[in-house]
UniProtKB/TrEMBL annotation:
Keyword Transcription regulation carried by entry: yes
GO MF annotation terms: DNA-binding transcription factor activity; sequence-specific DNA binding
Superkingdom assignment: Bacteria
Keywords, ordered alphabetically: DNA-binding, Transcription, Transcription regulation
PROSITE patterns linked to this entry: HTH_ARAC_FAMILY_2
Entry-linked Gene3D superfamilies: Homeodomain-like
The protein's name: Transcriptional regulator
Domain named HTH araC/xylS-type: residues: 191-296
Pfam family, one: HTH_18
Length: 297
């Protein structure tokens, strides 16, 4: 098994890239001025944002290979493992921003960093920018870089974290645009999701494996759970878990009409370990317990 190099500090990362450490908890640089990382597997203990201006090799994440092309952004959260396969003799252009979770502690960004779900997307779910979008993101990288070149004062952290938050908010908007422009592809994924849902509850999987998770369907569609969840929500207005629960209740209603099966038996067949959990979910969604629903019909 290939060893994973754990990069725990910004200074350690800067040493690998042969760039100066201007702040112990954050770094920003032009990729063209830094040494490329050698091929291998890495785990970063900080947030990382990359904007690339030219094709400069491949990144591997799980089963997927991502061609790191022009005008793309990728995001990594702390603890993620990424495999890097560097192309020979390339001169990358673009920008990188990496910051340790400790840098944003005590700031408004710290309380909402978890809402930027793209930090948990797979690398093949990168953000593809238009020229105008690249310009906006580049300007924000440059503002952050400028602040790191100044003497640190009481305003530095506020200004830098505000610009990071603005950059992430723009990326959230651009991802929304990307979901819309890929509507046909996304509708195909939602359709496949519905098919997988039907197949799951028509099989013996619920009795074998229990209730399905969002991750189960994302895995079958070769997507990360967060990207899949965001895609379904933007396409349908309902979360992926809402779809699972609605399908579950729909199947349950049909089976409740079979008076030869007890409510407990139906609950087990649908993947519930405890019938009371099924009763609670059914009542929450229909306003009636399974027995009340059977009697009403």
């Amino acid at each position: 098994m290939e060893d994973i190099l754990k990069v725990e500090s910004i200074a350690q990362y800067n040493a690998l890239k042969e760039i100066k450490t201007r702040h112990p908890l954050i770094t920003s640089f032009d990729s063209g001025t830094a040494k490329p990382l050698s091929s291998g597997k890495f785990s970063f203990e900080f947030y990382a944002i990359f904007l690339k201006g030219v094709n400069c090799g491949e990144l591997k994440y799980g089963r997927n290979t991502y061609d790191y092309e022009e005008g793309t952004m990728v995001f990594m959260g702390p603890g993620q493992v990424v495999g890097i396969k560097s192309a020979k003799d390339y001169n990358p252009k673009g920008f990188a921003l990496l910051f340790h979770p400790d840098f944003i502690k005590g700031t408004p960004l710290a309380s909402k960093i978890h809402t930027y779900s793209f930090f948990s997307y797979d690398l093949n779910e990168a953000l593809h920018l238009s020229e105008k979008e690249q310009q906006i993101i580049t300007e924000l990288f440059l503002k952050i870089d400028y602040e790191l070149d100044q003497n640190i004062d009481k305003h530095s952290k506020t200004i830098i974290t505000s610009n990071i938050e603005l950059l992430l908010n723009y990326c959230e908007r651009f991802y929304d645009r990307q979901f819309i422009t890929r509507e046909n592809l996304n509708q195909g994924i939602v359709s496949k999701f519905e098919g997988l849902l039907n197949d799951y509850f028509q099989s013996e999987n619920p009795q074998k494996y229990g209730l399905p998770s969002v991750g189960y369907f994302a895995n079958h569609l070769n997507l990360s759970a967060n990207y899949f969840g965001d895609l379904v929500k933007k396409e349908t207005g309902k979360s992926a878990m809402d779809h699972i629960h609605l399908k579950l209740i729909d199947v349950a209603k049909d089976r409740i009409f079979d008076t030869d099966s007890s409510i407990s038996q139906i609950a087990y067949e649908l993947g519930f370990k405890y019938p009371q959990h099924f009763n609670r979910m059914f009542k929450k969604n229909t306003g009636h317990t399974p027995n009340e629903y059977r009697n009403l019909n």
